[in-house]
Automatic annotation (TrEMBL):
Keywords of the record: Kinase, NAD, NADP, Transferase
EC numbers on record: 2.7.1.23
The protein, known as: NAD(+) kinase
Biased composition (Polar residues): 52-61
Organism: Cryptotermes secundus
The keyword Kinase is annotated on this UniProt entry: yes
A molecular function GO annotation: NAD+ kinase activity
Location of region: Disordered: 26-61
Any one GO biological process: NADP+ biosynthetic process
Family note: Belongs to the NAD kinase family.
Length: 437
């Protein structure tokens, strides 16, 4: 039955029971008016486009706030939701970028020459201030490079963990694999400058740019001709039991991760026994090797190896994946990005647990300690080589060989079935063989 007509019938019945209130068609709910208008415009729309209209949004259109004939969301200004169309997320500079941080893969000879070419071009052609890590300047292979000696004195350096780069960097360029992008995320624990990642590493799932024509590609980005993928990060805070009791002035561990935070049993031979809370409510207890809490970007990293689904980075969500759970029914789950997860050791846990953040900063958790995970308001703006959709599916195909299999042959290509059909029986085939003989 046509839903638009059904809604109009319901409204007519509503008018019949409310004549005393002098209700009219102008008083109809917005959804009824909208459906009536869509029904009137539908023939012209289909004639014009030849198909049904589609939304461009990768997340979803803003939800209609009326549910069925009677239910709706209570009007409350604090509940207004805005879902931005990722296709509209394009890079723009409100002033020309001056400083650029170049991060290269360490201990890789193949990256040295591209690094020298890029740095020299940025300084001499684009007149930019280039920052590199101090350890790069100490690389003996790089020091002996004749091209590097020309620009060495013009480089600005910093030391990881000692120098603060906040508000000093306008633009980041990564040369290497996915680890360079993860390192850039760890360097900036608040707002992150736009990141352009060149594929010069092993896998390169997060590095969509090829280095061959880097001059043209970097120029396009500097002129603002680029799409962005906003990769959400997780804010992870470890609250120690002793800190809560003594209220010490020592700040808790507070880190932003791009891929995942992992809680596992470490070197212990015993199962992890971890309690999982969502917005203060106990959800389940994890008994197994551990637990992975990942972003959509991290869903294609450790999580997918543990059996999780792959989520597009524009989807606002948090993935929770058990590691080798001692249960046949414990499957990975996806929860909304706005919730807070709290992870604690169960009081019956036989050993401590280990926590790591994007594979770094491993720490030990004891009974009474808690790890709190929320979605950060500071994403990593990753620059796209093409767009948000093409880059992701190209990476799935090239790096993970997603859905790769041999093509099924057409029936005409099968020599043993050319004279048979799906309705043939063994008796009929035997009779045909006798006639042929």
């Amino acid at each position: 039955m046509d839903l638009a007509r059904l809604n109009r019938c319901r409204w007519s019945r509503h008018l019949a029971f409310n004549d005393r209130n002098h209700c009219s068609a102008e008083d109809a709910p917005p959804i009824v008016k909208q459906q009536c208008k869509e029904e009137e415009d539908e023939p012209e729309r289909r004639k014009r486009s030849g198909t049904w209209p589609r939304t461009r949004s990768l997340n979803a259109p803003s939800p209609i706030q009326q549910f069925g004939p009677c239910g709706r969301i209570m009007k409350n200004s604090a509940m207004v939701m805005t879902i931005q169309d990722p296709a509209s997320q394009r890079l723009t500079w409100y002033k020309p970028p001056l400083t650029v941080l170049v991060i290269k893969k360490v201990r890789d000879v193949s990256v040295l020459q591209p690094f020298v070419q890029l740095v020299k071009w940025l300084i001499e052609e684009k007149h930019m201030v280039v920052f590199v890590e101090q350890t790069v300047m100490d690389d003996t292979l790089l020091i002996n490079n004749p091209g590097f000696s020309v620009v060495k004195e013009k480089l600005m350096t910093f030391r990881d963990g000692k120098d603060d780069l906040t508000d000093k960097i306008d633009f980041i360029i990564c040369l290497g694999g996915d680890g360079t992008l993860l390192y850039a995320s760890l360097l900036f624990q608040q707002s992150v400058p736009p990141v352009m990642a060149f594929h010069l590493g092993s896998l390169g799932f997060l590095t969509p740019f090829e280095f061959d024509n880097f001059q043209e590609q970097v120029t396009n980005v500097l002129e603002g001709h680029a799409a962005l993928t906003l990769r959400s990060r997780l804010r992870c805070i470890i609250v120690r039991k002793n800190d809560e009791l003594n209220r010490t002035s020592k700040p808790p561990t507070n880190l932003l991760v791009l891929n995942e935070v992992v809680i596992d049993r470490g070197p212990s031979p015993y199962l992890s026994n971890i309690d999982l809370f969502l917005d203060g409510k106990h959800i389940t207890s994890v008994q197994g090797d551990g637990l992975i809490v990942s972003t959509p970007t991290g869903s294609t990293a450790y999580a997918v190896a543990a059996g999780a689904s792959m989520i597009h980075p524009s989807v606002p969500a948090i993935m929770v994946t058990p590691i080798c759970p001692h249960s046949l029914s414990f499957r990975p789950i996806v929860v909304p990005a706005g919730v807070e997860l709290k992870i604690m050791l169960n009081s019956d846990a036989r050993s401590t647990a280990c926590v790591s953040f994007d594979g770094r900063y491993q720490q030990e958790m004891h009974v009474g300690d808690s790890l709190r995970v929320t979605t950060s308001v500071y994403p990593v703006p990753s620059i796209c080589a093409q767009d948000q959709i093409s880059d992701w599916f190209d990476s799935l195909a090239e790096c993970l060989h997603w859905n790769v299999r041999k093509r099924q042959k057409h029936l005409d290509e099968l020599s043993d079935l050319t004279h048979s059909s799906s309705n043939d029986t063994l008796d009929s085939l035997d009779h045909t063989d006798q006639l042929d003989s």
